[in-house]
């Protein structure tokens, strides 16, 4: 039995480790990823401010996989033919019996003119390091600053974290009074997060904005970014000498270059509640590869849902369990929609934090709470250390 996993971060690494553990010697597991290291993406928000470097939040994949008896191939997966069961890569073809697609997304920088050229993006190491260099220049000649998310974006939480870390950094650099700080978001209200908010969330964020003197615009998209401004869909033009925007995510080239996968218009995979491809019973999707339709009513400016590490990790486990069941001839597979996965998030606010917990990511919920910790972001740090320890030691079964 050959199980091939495309993508080796949260969902892909978890799925690969769990499949190997569940099937042990009866399965050959191979992971393909273009990058050598697992990256704890949530901590990238700290890189521009020097609180972390990329090496501190990375784990070399090869050693972890080899210890678990999993083959790792560092290359770029180009396409798949589901009928012949062959994945084509830059290092040749790979056959499979079961295929797990956990590629993550591609960033749609061309959502508006100038976003790619003039707005920083801190969701990958290159962008985070570029933002760090730009801030070193910015503090020599500070001015207005715009942080937020564009239309169709779904990762507002990271942008909020960056905003509050930025506000703290500006105070530490003793230039806060020279900077008009703006927050722009397509959300219909502060703290929507693409999950229709949490109890007291909007009030809490409004208080934060007032307390830190941050100007904000909700329900807006971006029409253009220039070296000196951000133009919004409401007709407003905000001055900006440093801009950071979270653009939308779309499916990666591997998926869009594989027409038989019948991807959605945004390049993601439409799968059942068991994360199995609707047409090919031996193809599975996990993590950000999964198409998740926003369950809420949109405002004038569209936005999407969050696809974060915890749901990615959970879907990787579900896929592994369902592969085991299908191989054993079971017809009843484990089902859990993206929105039914618990909401577990710790939002950093510049050495402060907000703990977000709910029994379901999307409404209706039986339990949901936001707990502010104004003293120190200790839980955020503990979560990072725990997850990196878990990855280094191959403890994929842990939460």
Written description of the protein model:
The chain has 399 residues and is an alpha/beta fold. The protein has 9 helices and 22 strands. Strands 5-2-1-9-19 form a 5-stranded parallel sheet, with helices on one face. A 4-stranded parallel sheet has the order 13-12-11-17, covered by helices on one side. The longest helix is centred in the C-terminal third of the chain and has 19 residues. It is globular, with a radius of gyration of 21 Å. The mean pLDDT is 96.
Give the arrangement of secondary structure elements:
Blueprint: E1 2-6, H1 10-23, E2 28-33, E3 37-39, E4 58-60, H2 61-67, E5 71-74, E6 77-81, E7 86-89, E8 92-95, E9 98-101, E10 105-107, H3 115-118, H4 125-138, E11 145-149, H5 156-172, E12 181-184, H6 201-211, E13 215-217, E14 222-226, E15 229-232, E16 237-239, E17 242-246, E18 249-251, H7 253-256, E19 283-285, H8 309-327, E20 343-348, E21 353-358, E22 368-373, H9 378-392
Parallel strand pairs: 1-2, 1-9, 2-5, 9-19, 11-12, 11-17, 12-13
Antiparallel strand pairs: 3-4, 6-7, 7-8, 10-18, 14-15, 15-16, 20-21, 21-22
């Amino acid at each position: 039995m050959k199980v091939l996993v495309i993508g080796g971060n949260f969902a892909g690494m978890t799925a690969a480790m769990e499949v190997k553990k569940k099937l042990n010697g009866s399965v050959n597991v191979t992971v393909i990823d273009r990058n050598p290291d697992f990256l704890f993406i949530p901590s990238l928000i700290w890189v521009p401010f020097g609180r972390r470097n990329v090496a501190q939040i990375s784990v070399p994949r090869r050693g972890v996989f080899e210890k678990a008896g999993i083959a790792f191939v560092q290359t770029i997966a180009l396409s798949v033919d589901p009928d012949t069961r062959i994945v084509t890569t830059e290092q040749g073809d790979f056959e499979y019996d079961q295929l797990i697609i956990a590629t993550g997304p591609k960033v749609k920088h061309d959502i508006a003119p100038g976003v790619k050229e003039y707005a920083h993006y801190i969701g990958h190491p290159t962008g985070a390091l570029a933002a760090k260099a730009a801030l070193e220049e910015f503090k020599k000649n500070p001015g207005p600053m715009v942080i937020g998310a564009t239309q169709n974006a779904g990762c507002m939480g990271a942008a909020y974290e960056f905003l509050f870390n930025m506000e703290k950094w500006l105070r530490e650099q003793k230039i806060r009074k020279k900077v008009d700080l703006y927050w722009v978001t397509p959300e219909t209200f502060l703290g929507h997060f693409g999950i229709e908010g949490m109890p007291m969330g909007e009030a809490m964020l409004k208080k934060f904005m007032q307390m830190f003197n941050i100007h904000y615009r909700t329900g807006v998209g971006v029409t253009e970014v220039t070296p000196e401004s951000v133009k919004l869909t409401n007709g407003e033009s905000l001055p900006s000498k440093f801009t950071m925007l979270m653009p939308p995510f779309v499916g990666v080239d591997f998926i869009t270059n594989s027409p038989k996968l019948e991807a959605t218009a945004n390049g993601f995979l439409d799968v059942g509640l068991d994360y199995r491809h609707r047409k090919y019973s031996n193809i599975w999707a996990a993590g950000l590869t999964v198409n998740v339709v926003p369950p809420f009513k949109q405002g004038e400016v569209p936005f999407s849902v969050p696809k974060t590490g915890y749901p990615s990790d959970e879907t990787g486990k579900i896929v592994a369990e369902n592969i085991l069941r299908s191989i054993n001839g079971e017809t009843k597979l484990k089902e859990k929609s993206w929105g039914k996965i618990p909401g577990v998030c710790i939002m950093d606010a510049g050495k402060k934090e907000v703990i977000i917990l709910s029994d379901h990511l999307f409404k209706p919920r039986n339990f949901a709470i936001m707990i502010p910790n104004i003293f120190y972001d200790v839980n955020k740090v503990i979560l990072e250390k725990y997850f990196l320890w878990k990855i280094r030691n191959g403890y994929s079964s842990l939460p």
